[in-house]
Design goal:
Largest sheet: 17 strands, mixed
Strand content: over 45%
Number of helices: 5
Number of strands: 22
Radius of gyration: 25 Å
Structural class: alpha+beta
Order of helices and strands: HEEHEEEHEEEEEEEEEEEEEEEEEHH
């Protein structure tokens, strides 16, 4: 009987030793993975290794676009830890979860699925301590701004080339403080055109309230447009993996510079704008189809349709607007501008934007141009059809292609 008890004690001690060694090995592996991700420029890193499955959260402020960072993180870890067969990687934007990448390796091929079913991974990582925080770090991004207007009768066109350095800071989870002055470089504008003066661009505080599998909501206060200041809110629903429906509304005042009064808010200039949007991505053709309707920035009612073709990191599209009884149309594009990787090595980083975006408006009707019809705004200076494009099927395709060597 005594001998049986002794064997039981020995077995218990051995099991405890094996368990402790296993936990120690996993802890070492986790620390190694965190150090690797940090050296690659990722921030707000959380990791947890359970058997051959890695749960992780990363914020990518170094790699261009929404898919390069995820692919690079998986590649680096797989090279160092080949025993990991399953990756559950949550991608965040200003510390808020946007998508999760499920990636598994069978031999030399990777299988990837991207969606918003992040609850399990977030639960597994809830008690983990984040490393390499992005809070308080400053990005100064130099945006070029080019304007051409060819509706003049006495000369061919008005032009303006301006530079707009944007200072961006993440203050806490989901927040972004942006301060962006606009400086004219060269132009042929008359004295009544506000673009000839130093202006305020996107200067606001934005806050993502929540971001989940089913819905998102955000609010922003400040300047969203060189001549409009106010408050804006947005609520969206993720109907399917590639179909979103959202509504936004704003309450703004006109604020600009004049020779007579300097800078100030114009009385009786308040406007309410509200739009309902439908955004659909068709993965086979890589077409993004957008429909929106409601009240535009300056009070006119109408709708807009966009068709955008995504070529990896390039997005080129056309659009049409009908509002106030007038038609308008044009094209837009977003093309890579900065390097594929712009690592943040110090507390303050000077950088180029990831993409250069531009929109041409036909504006053939004088009334359309004179009354500022069909106008809208963005809450962040880097919003376009490529940057911050968190479309699951789009991200899925290019993460898988990079991992399998089909895209560079």
């Amino acid at each position: 009987m005594q001998q049986t008890k002794t064997y039981a004690i020995i077995i218990a001690i051995f099991a405890c030793f094996v368990s402790t060694a296993s936990m120690w090995g996993q802890t070492e592996a986790t620390v190694s993975i965190q150090q690797l991700l940090r050296s690659e420029g990722f921030e707000d890193i959380k990791t947890r290794l359970i058997a051959d499955t890695l749960y992780a959260t990363i914020e990518d402020r170094s790699h261009r676009g929404t898919f390069r960072g995820a692919a690079r993180a998986i590649q680096c870890i797989a090279e160092q830890q080949p025993e990991i067969q399953q990756f559950e990687m949550v991608l965040t934007d200003y510390k808020m979860p946007q998508l999760i990448v499920h990636a598994s390796r069978r031999g030399d091929l990777w299988n990837v699925r991207v969606d918003r079913e992040m609850e399990l991974a977030i639960t597994q990582l809830r008690e983990e301590q984040a490393v390499a925080s992005s809070t308080g770090k400053i990005d100064v991004t130099f945006f070029p701004m080019i304007s051409l207007v060819n509706n003049k009768l006495d000369h061919l066109f008005d032009f303006a080339v301006r530079i707009a350095p944007a200072v961006g800071i993440t203050l806490w989870k989901g927040s972004r403080l942006t301060l962006q002055p606009i400086f004219p470089i060269v132009h042929n504008l008359d004295e009544y055109d506000t673009q000839r003066y130093i202006q305020i661009g996107n200067a606001n505080l934005s806050q993502q309230i929540f971001s989940s599998r089913y819905a998102q909501a955000s609010v922003a206060v400040g300047f969203f447009h060189p001549e409009r200041i106010g408050i804006q809110g947005r609520v969206g629903v993720h109907v399917t993996r590639n179909l979103d429906i959202y509504a936004d509304a704003g309450f703004t005042f006109k604020a600009n510079y004049s020779n007579q009064h300097g800078f100030g808010i114009v009385r009786d200039s308040r406007q309410i704008n509200a739009m309902l949007h439908v955004d659909y991505y068709e993965p086979r053709t890589k077409l993004q189809l957008e429909l929106q309707g409601g009240r535009f920035l300056y009070g006119d009612y109408g709708g807009r349709a966009d068709i955008t073709r995504h070529f990896g990191e390039y997005a080129i599209g056309i659009y049409g607007i009908y509002t106030g009884g007038e038609f308008n149309g044009g094209f837009h594009f977003a093309i890579p501008f900065g390097g594929k990787r712009q690592k943040r090595k110090t507390f303050i980083r000077l950088r180029l934007p990831e993409y250069f975006s531009w929109e041409y408006s036909y504006q053939s009707y004088f009334r359309y141009w004179l009354e500022n019809m069909g106008q809208s705004y963005v809450t962040q200076p880097d919003e376009n059809h490529s940057a911050h494009y968190w479309e699951p099927r789009f991200v899925e395709e290019y993460v898988q292609r990079i991992l399998n060597g089909d895209f560079k």
